[in-house]
Write a structure and sequence with these properties.
Elements (H helix, E strand, L loop, with lengths): L5 E7 L5 H13 L4 E4 L14 H10 L3 E5 L8 H13 L3 E5 L8 H4 L4 E4 L2 H11 L5
Parallel strand pairs: 1-2, 1-3, 3-4, 4-5
Helix pairs in contact: 2-3
């Protein structure tokens, strides 16, 4: 049996709205036959908004195979989420939107650059990651 691939995933989110982030991490961590590395900013180590923030985010997003963003109407108002989406586009890192249950609309900031927008189902999320993630060494 071939070795399973490990995906480097950056999850763009706001700490003020972290419940969906934690649920998404749990979905990925508990998925059978799916290996991943979380390149997101850990809550306990949240990056301070200082001169090095942009550099550290560039590095994290740039080393990721895919960027997931929890779709929410607040995304267009969140400076760093918008910045992460822009940097992913510049770097060629694929973006996949994950729509929480009940969310119908998708902000243009996401729909313009997302390779896919999927519902809040583990299999849909995993399928999108496997389909769109970069194949880096």
């Amino acid at each position: 049996m071939p070795a399973l691939r490990s995906y480097r995933v950056f999850i763009s989110h706001c700490w003020e709205y972290n419940r969906d982030y934690h649920r998404l991490v749990e979905f990925l961590s508990e998925a059978p036959l799916f290996h991943w590395q979380n390149h997101s900013v850990p809550e306990g180590n949240a990056l301070r908004e200082d001169k090095k923030l942009e550099y550290r985010l560039r590095k994290r997003v740039g080393e990721s195979d895919i960027l997931l963003v929890v779709v929410g109407m607040e995304v267009p108002r969140r400076h760093w989420v918008r910045w992460e989406l822009k940097w992913a586009r510049i770097r060629g890192t694929p973006v996949v939107g994950v729509r929480p249950r009940g969310m119908v609309s998708v902000p243009k900031a996401i729909s313009r650059i997302a390779k896919d927008v999927v519902g809040w189902r583990r299999e849909s999320i995993l399928r999108a990651i496997r389909k769109h993630a970069l194949d880096r060494p």
